[in-house]
UniProtKB/TrEMBL annotation:
Keywords associated with the record: Cell membrane, Ion channel, Ion transport, Membrane, Transmembrane, Transmembrane helix, Transport
Protein name as annotated: Fluoride-specific ion channel
Chain ranges passing through the membrane: 6-28, 49-71, 83-105, 126-153
Location relative to the cell: Cell membrane
Top-level taxon of the source organism: Bacteria
Free-text function comment from the UniProt entry: Fluoride-specific ion channel. Important for reducing fluoride concentration in the cell, thus reducing its toxicity.
GO BP of this protein: monoatomic ion transmembrane transport
Similarity comment: family membership: Belongs to the fluoride channel Fluc/FEX (TC 1.A.43) family.
Entry annotated with the keyword Transmembrane: yes
Transmembrane in keyword set: yes
One Gene Ontology cellular component: plasma membrane
Length: 157
């Protein structure tokens, strides 16, 4: 029972951070919704590109990398602070790879059922699977680079 105060000192900021991250994600989604269709149409992707999910995962990866870099720089003591707990909660609520991969896979998986159609009305086929794979690999690659950049900047501080 003696760890209860310590647990509360960490879990309350973590919870508040997660709530703020979820609100930030919803706001990002609503702000990028008008650009979502233009971005997909301008690039002529066979399926809509999940722009909001892409933006939040890159931002979340960078922020978590930055927090990790700062923790390493300050010798690990920084990592147990309530501020870090709040930042980790925020990135967890703000970004989610499960949503990113589901967004990427939706058109390819449901193509046979005819739920998704291109602007010309054709059914989704191999090109939609390739688009889903491109999105998934781009998401992982760019988020990995963003996390590494955040860690590098955190170490410089």
């Amino acid at each position: 029972m003696s760890d209860l105060p310590s647990l509360l000192i960490t879990s309350i900021p973590l919870t508040i951070g997660a709530m703020l991250g979820a609100v930030g994600r919803a706001m990002t989604e609503s702000l990028t919704a008008p650009q979502h269709e233009r971005f997909s149409a301008a690039r002529r992707w066979p399926a809509p590109w999940p722009l909001a999910t892409f933006v939040v995962n890159i931002g979340g990866s960078f922020l978590l990398g930055l927090v990790t870099g700062l923790t390493v720089h300050f010798g690990g003591g920084f990592g147990s602070s309530p501020i870090v707990a709040a930042l980790i909660g925020f990135t967890g609520g703000f970004s989610t790879f499960s949503t990113a991969l589901v967004d990427a896979a939706k058109p390819a998986v449901t193509a046979g059922h005819g739920q998704y159609r291109t602007k010309t009305g054709e059914r989704l086929e191999l090109k939609h699977l390739l688009s889903a794979l491109l999105h998934a690999f781009a998401m992982v690659g760019i988020c990995l680079a963003a996390a590494a950049l955040g860690m590098w900047i955190g170490k410089l501080v």
